[in-house]
Amino acid sequence: MFSLDGSLETGSAGALSDGRYAALDDKRKADLNILAQTELLTRHLVSVRKNLAPELIERLARVLQSMHEDGEGQSILRSIDNTQSSTCYRR
Question: Can you give the residue ranges of every domain in the chain?
């Protein structure tokens, strides 16, 4: 099992995020048997109420989609679960 301190226990089962797996050194990766992998999902979700003005929705989307291009936005993203960039899927 993968624990918060990064240690692995032989014979256990667990789950890792893609980011945590990528951060493992090659020896630790070689020691793991991947049994299943889920589809990639958006980690952070923003929803708006039905009657929010479309202009506000568009403005919010522009700000969120461009956060990774700005120093202050990058700092905010790093503070939120160590996110490195912004991806937005719209319905």
Answer: 1-41, 44-91
Residue 7: pLDDT band (50, 70, 90) is: low
pTM of the complete model beyond 0.70: no
Beta carbons within 8 Å of 82's beta carbon, 6+ residues apart: 19
DSSP string, 18-59: HHHHHHS-HHHHHH------PPP--S------TTS-HHHHHH
Q: How far apart are CA 86 and CA 25, in angstroms?
A: 26
| Pair of tokens at residue 68 | 């990774």
Residue 71: left if φ>0, alpha if ψ -120 to 50, beta else—which one?
alpha
